[in-house]
Amino acid sequence: MRNVFLFIYYGLATFIPMKPMPGYQLGYFLRRILAKKLLAFCGNEIILKNRCYFGNGSKLSVGDRSQLGQNARFHGAITIGNDVIMGPDIVMMSTSHAFEDINIPINQQGEVPEKPIKVGDDVWVGTRVIILPGVSIGNHSIIGSGSVVTKSFPENSIIAGNPAKLIRSRLKNKSVR
């Protein structure tokens, strides 16, 4: 039955328009119903924008009222908290390739052990952010558009750049340079 839901999601539901196009409510509703069948955990009132890719969904958990951005790609063990919003073209990968042996082509070295990604509650992930394996983003944080996040950050962080760096805290008078 899982394959039927995957076929409906990737063959039909992912192409239904999103807001503000007419019919967007149908797209949000259908994608939400399918996500509840496919994801490891699917909270209430989530929004999956169109063309969001998550493989078979068995390792993706999404909290209440969170939004997965248009054209987003999720691969591996990923936990997204409650009330997370994200722009389009997000990439989160909890897996990577081995490359240590120079005598063996990279495509023959296999994968390294998976390192889960965790995004806390009330996080804003800007457009075209890339989050790499093992990263944890604290609650109430903001990730600037185009950032490449290679390490973890605590709660209330505003981060940006490639590689992403702490710009400042969201808490009043907590500037960092």
> What is the number of strand segments?
16
Q: Element order, helices and strands?
A: HHEEEEEEEEEEEEEEEE
Number of helices, counting only DSSP H or I runs of 4 residues or more: 2
Gap between N and C termini: 53 Å
> How much is the average pLDDT?
95
Bin the strand percentage.
15-25%
**Shape summary:** globular
Numbering strands along the chain, what is their spatial order in the largest sheet?
A: 1-3-6-9-12
What is Rg? 17 Å
The helical percent reads 10-25%
In terms of per-residue confidence, which ranges show pLDDT below 50 for 5 or more consecutive residues? none
Helix-and-strand structural type: alpha/beta
Major β-sheet annotation: 5 strands, parallel
